[in-house]
Fold:
Amino acid sequence: MSVNKVILVGRLGADPESRAFPQGGSICTLRIATSESWKDRQTNERQERTEWHRVILRNKLGEIAQEYLKKGSQVYIEGRIQTRKWQNQQGQDQYTTEIVGNEMTMLDSRSSASNPAGDMQQPSSNIPDDTDYFYGDYDSYGQGN
Structure:
């Protein structure tokens, strides 16, 4: 048995890019950033690392993303990881690893789409909403550190 499942919660680093194909169908590409932060135990300084993900959404799901998402939008994606082989203009083999999304949930409020400042209430959690993933010292996080 094997499992190929990816779950991402992150923010778009650019507006979605879509292409339609002459034979039918379309594809939408998202560039999603996820971040993790932690406190370095030796220096006691907060560290952060951002990872960028290429996400492909096909047909209707991609059309929805193109219409409603924009740079900075927060999104939940489920899908699978895939590596494609292709040739560049010099004929050399290239490889691209991407997430093929099959589920998407828009996490921003509807009002933030029309109002960039947003009318959202701050979450009750002490984890800031601009940090998608947090690993490390949970006990001291949010207490002025």
Q: What stands out?
A: The radius of gyration is 18 Å. The CA atoms of residues 4 and 73 lie 26 Å apart.
